[in-house]
Design goal:
By secondary structure, the chain is mainly α. The protein has 15 helices and no strands.
């Protein structure tokens, strides 16, 4: 990295850290994730010089390493008794399919009938997640990209900012994860350090393997499931100390805010009302589905709601660990949603919208699975 990029890096991390500190002082839930994101977006609105470089992005090595650490941290919250409730997962996954279908249909009808969008735009705006695949399909069909991407990015921003407040106000989950970190700090002996290093090495190996197999959010999910397997089986129980986990959360929140902050302010103002309505529709359907599923299957509402959240897979997994809400349940359902979209979206798109016209543009990549 050149000197200017290093200055940008420290600048955005300082803004993100300040946002995390403010959220924590205000006792807002998931502050280490939502605080940096909100701070970066506000800094963009204020045109602070340290984040004025539109082309700046976090170094890939930093973000990749961070995903491995976060995946390991999330998996360390899995206890050996989580299998007791796994028998109900097929039913809750069927409910998830209904929620995803309902969100897509409702948003399509709103943007197509009410807003006058084209059929392609309305359909892709309604897909709850898989932003990278959505961008590729949009380009393949030659549909306008701007409005679709803004709707998805505003949805991601509002999900991270709002969902922790909803969950904590409904079920009082806030700050339950702090005890885990405190216990780790208290028992960080030499043996614990060696075990932590071995566990992180194993998580890193599985993270790289998952990425090579092109698993969604491979570095994070590979490390997560490796960590969950080690902890749930008792082979190697560990947890990241708070001094290591906290910077990882801040980096992720800062990176999300940096990415969202690249939207042009003028375009965002024109699209915000539509994007907000789409978010409300999506969240309402997810909320209703979570309430019904929670009541019908006897599963706690908080983890069903996070599992049914319309997008933001990595963020929902991180929120589940920050609020100590069954990360395996949330991760499994979010992965099913994401992988289902990847598998069936091209087929459904062709069936509903017809064959795509010939295009020669390259697919757009995003740093988040969503």
């Amino acid at each position: 990295m050149c000197g200017k990029n290093i200055l940008n890096l420290f600048g955005v991390l300082a803004v993100g850290g300040a946002g995390a500190a403010v959220f924590e002082l205000l006792s807002l839930p998931a502050g280490f994730l939502a605080g940096p994101m909100v701070a970066l977006v506000l800094a963009k609105l204020l045109s602070l010089p340290l984040i004025g470089n539109e082309d700046f992005a976090f170094p890939k090595l930093l973000t990749s390493t961070n995903f491995v650490f976060i995946g390991a941290a999330m998996g360390s919250a899995v206890s050996p008794d989580f299998w007791e409730s796994a028998s109900l997962w097929p039913l809750s996954m069927l409910a998830l399919v209904a929620v995803v279908s309902g969100i897509t249909s409702a948003v399509y009808l709103y943007t197509y009938k009410k807003c006058g969008w084209g059929r392609d735009e309305a359909f892709f705006a309604g897909l709850p997640g898989a932003l990278g695949m959505t961008a590729a399909l949009v380009q393949e069909r030659g549909a306008p990209m701007d409005r679709i991407m803004i709707v998805h990015l505003v949805r991601l921003f509002l999900l991270i900012a709002v969902l922790p407040l909803i969950v904590t106000n409904v079920v009082g989950s806030n700050d339950r994860a702090d005890a885990v970190a405190q216990n780790v700090e208290a028992g960080l002996s030499f043996t614990a350090v060696v075990e932590l290093m071995v566990a992180l090495l194993i998580c890193a190996i599985f993270a790289v393997l998952a990425r090579r197999l092109k698993a969604p959010a491979g570095l994070l999910t590979g490390a997560f499931f490796a960590s969950a397997a080690l902890n749930s089986t008792g082979l190697l129980e560990f947890a990241l100390p708070v001094w290591l986990a906290t910077p990882c959360y801040i980096i992720m929140g800062t990176n999300v805010g940096l990415y969202i902050g690249k939207i042009e302010i003028g375009t965002l103002k024109l699209m915000f009302v539509t994007s907000f309505v789409v978010f409300v529709i999506s969240l309402s359907i997810a909320l209703t589905g979570a309430l019904v599923t929670s009541w019908a299957l006897g599963i706690s509402f908080d983890k069903v709601f996070l599992a049914f959240a319309p997008g933001g897979m990595e963020a929902m997994l991180l929120i589940s660990i920050l609020l100590d809400i069954d990360p395996v349940f949330v991760a499994t359902h979010q992965l099913v949603r994401f992988m289902g979209l990847l598998a069936f979206m091209p087929i459904v798109t062709r069936y509903i919208l017809g064959p795509a016209p010939v295009q020669k543009s390259e697919p757009t990549e995003t740093p988040f699975a969503t």
